[in-house]
Amino acid sequence: xxxxxxxAYNKLFKRYSQxxxxxxxxxxxxxxxxxxxxxxxxxxxKEGSDPPRGMxxxxxxQAMAMxxxxxxxxxxxxxxxxxxxxxxxxxxxxxxxxxxxxIADLSIVEGDPLRDIWATTxxxxxxxxxxxxxxxxxxxxxxxxxxxxxxxxxxxxEVLPFxxxxxxxxxxxxxxxxxxxxxxxxxxxxxxxxFNFNSIELPTKYVSKxxxxxxxxxxxxxxxGTYTITVKAEGxxxxxxxxxxxxxxxxx
Length: 252
Known about the structure:
This protein is of the alpha+beta class. The chain has two domains: 2-132, no CATH class; 149-249, Immunoglobulin-like, CATH 2.60.40. Helix content is 25%, strand content 23%. The protein is built from five helices and twelve strands. It has helices spanning 2-15, 18-40, 58-70, 74-80, 83-88; strands at 106-109, 123-128, 131-132, 158-160, 163-165, 170-175, 183-189, 200-201, 204-208, 211-216, 225-233, 244-249. A five-stranded mixed sheet has the order 5-12-11-7-8, with no helix packed on it. The protein has a four-stranded antiparallel sheet with strand order 4-6-10-9, with no helix packed on it. A three-stranded antiparallel sheet has the order 1-2-3, with no helix packed on it. The longest helix has 23 residues, at 18-40. It is elongated.
């Protein structure tokens, strides 16, 4: 959530000119007007769990809040994320509302979302197929190790120390903005017989939002030369961050 938010704020307040900000605000106002007029005309509003900005589920609640901000009644916004979704997939006989005979998928919240739409985020109990879900998700592993990694990679890296000797155990500090605990430091030999095509993942320790620590085994730098250091998200095939270099000198 922090990565998505930081990316949005960086785009709006650091890269956008005042003209672009005004255009973005006008675009938002026009989208609100469209949503409001669409609903007033009898259109069926539907919100999904995975909007273009990523952060599945959380941004559905943000979209519901934006619908209300646009002037849509709270109940219409709630229906847009429940029954109307089921109707869109022609599954409303089984899903989308609390009725006898339908599948018991329930989200129970504390508060009154008809007065405050954000109450939909205050989930106290989830029931799926009639079974209460453990809120701690004990024994459950997210099949997606991380998502939208392109938003979380540091743009520029600094490696300290920037040089070492061949076949020497080495611990490096990799610095850059936007480090995360799921990031891993990768090492690749630029030229030579080792690691020409594939980076190898180094044992990595998360230090802070701006620093990772990685351990390089002697066998991974047995040849002198230039090595590239990158950062990537655990479990992601692509992409990797921009490169930094580590110089490995001949051992005396």
